[in-house]
Design a protein that fits this description.
The chain has 455 residues and is an alpha+beta fold. The protein contains 12 helices and 20 strands. It has 2 domains: 331 residues, Aminopeptidase; 114 residues, Alpha-Beta Plaits, CATH 3.30.70.360.
């Protein structure tokens, strides 16, 4: 039997999305529900793809619309025009975030904020970011066409430089909103341009960057529609994922020290091979992370070998170990197991292994009330869904520091993203936008503290 929404929310902490019990097919959709204009949404996504498209290319060739680039500037200009056509009043904040506001019935109510970004990685896809931004504009357009006025004001946001290709640090606009910019960040230089000047180019005001801050508790809720960027929904044949949260990330710098020596004259028993020890550690990380149930992941993504010569036994290896999961406690425990194995490997190879945590990003959990609103929207539309976590970072993790946050995922075909081959079916794009629309209307009627209707 289908579970109630309350049972769904209580069960998601242990739900394995890929298993059959994690799938719910709800009754047929209510016929009189308001729906977005799917053809218009597609048209807007296809049009935005022209800004940053390779010369002579097509939609299938993807886009390079790196934050602060001329292509980004042109694409954002298109977004502003769409906001105006949808009945929104767009403005630029000090961080160059584009905020399209729609008045609500209660002038004192906190705004419901939703949107995403439009910048891309080099040779990226057309859905990562743009779907969430353009679907949010489409929701506002649909509300205007149907004469629906919400209690809370609505703010559709296109966040600045989410990907972080420029200046090497992502979530730029949302970090400014959450007061998380790093000291001296605006003085960083990339391609000969100071970051402050890049922000100014997009319409921001870096001299008053603190004006972009939003105080904790100043928004009613934040919701972001996004492509999954993984293959869970696609493999399961599910059109909607309700995000539990964005994972915590612990990154460790590891230094393995042995002794560099001649490869031809050093007998095998006498070697202190740092690369041999490092390779065993790489294997150990995989074994530890996969050695228990759960959705935790571990990655060794960078390896530097010294002296990196074919006729020298490696004497030094530097590598990174990255662990991700919603539970910080689990990450700490897994790191402890990696440290223990590192000690054993060092003893067996007569090397030394130092493991130092270099960064920690807290998990950003989705608010139960927002997740409930998304579940009810999908329920009303007759769309199957399941719960899953986000292994990638999103602007939503910054907004979770300001107010109740939620995310809606739609399938990425083949689990491919950050590539011209990134695809989400137009049907799933429309379903995601419809669920977003229903969720916004549901959130408008809810108290985020008690998840009860607003009187």
């Amino acid at each position: 039997m289908p579970l109630s929404r309350r049972a769904f929310l209580l069960s998601t902490a242990s739900l394995a999305v890929s298993s059959v019990p994690g799938v719910w097919a709800w009754p047929a959709a209510t016929p009189d529900l308001v729906r977005i204009n799917a053809a218009r949404l597609r048209e807007h996504i296809e049009k935005l793809s022209e800004f940053g498209r390779p010369s002579g290319g097509t939609f299938a060739d993807g886009v390079t619309r790196v934050g602060y680039s001329d292509a980004d500037l042109a694409g954002r200009g298109y977004v502003v025009r769409l906001m105006k056509a949808a009945g929104l009043e767009p403005r630029f904040d000090a961080a160059a975030n584009i905020i399209g506001r729609r008045a609500g019935r209660d002038t004192a109510a906190k705004p419901i904020v939703f949107g995403s970004h439009v910048d891309s990685v080099p040779s990226g896809g057309n859905f990562d970011g743009p779907l969430g931004t353009l679907a949010a504009i489409e929701v506002a357009h649909t509300l205007s066409e149907h004469g629906i006025v919400t209690v809370h004001p609505l703010e559709v946001v296109a966040w600045t430089n989410e990907e972080g290709v420029a200046y090497g640090n992502g979530l730029c606009g949302s970090r400014a909103a959450a007061d998380e910019l790093v000291a001296g960040e605006l003085d960083q230089v990339w391609n000969g341009v100071r970051k402050a000047d890049a922000i100014r180019k997009l319409g921001g005001d870096p001299d008053h960057i603190t004006d972009a801050r939003r105080a904790p508790g100043s928004i009613h809720a934040y919701l972001e529609l996004h492509v999954e960027q993984g293959g869970v929904l696609d493999r399961a044949g599910l059109p909607i994922g309700i995000v539990e949260g964005i994972v915590a990330i612990d990154r460790y710098e590891c230094v393995v020290r042995g002794t560099a020596n001649h490869a031809g004259t050093t007998p095998m028993p006498d070697r202190q091979d740092a690369l041999l020890a490092a390779s065993r550690l790489v294997q150990a990380v995989n074994e530890i992370v996969t050695g228990e149930p759960g959705r935790q992941v571990g990655t060794v993504g960078r390896l530097e070998v010294t002296p990196n010569a074919p006729n020298v036994v490696p004497g030094l290896v530097r590598l990174t170990v990255e662990l991700r999961d919603l539970s910080a406690e689990k990450l700490a425990r897994l790191a402890g197991l990696v440290r223990a194995r590192a000690g054993q490997i060092a003893a067996a190879t007569r090397t030394t292994i130092e493991l130092t945590r270099s960064s920690h990003h807290e998990a950003a959990l989705a608010a139960p009330a927002v997740r409930e609103a998304v579940a009810k929207s999908a329920d009303d539309l007759g769309i199957a869904y399941a719960s899953l976590q986000s292994g990638a970072g999103h602007d939503a993790q910054m907004l979770a520091r300001i107010g109740p946050m939620g995310m809606i995922f739609v399938p990425s075909i083949g689990g491919i993203s950050h590539s011209p081959r990134e695809r989400t079916s137009w049907e799933d794009c429309a379903r995601g936008a419809d669920v977003l629309l229903g969720s916004i209307l549901g959130i408008d009627r809810m108290s985020m503290s008690a998840a009860s209707p607003v009187s």
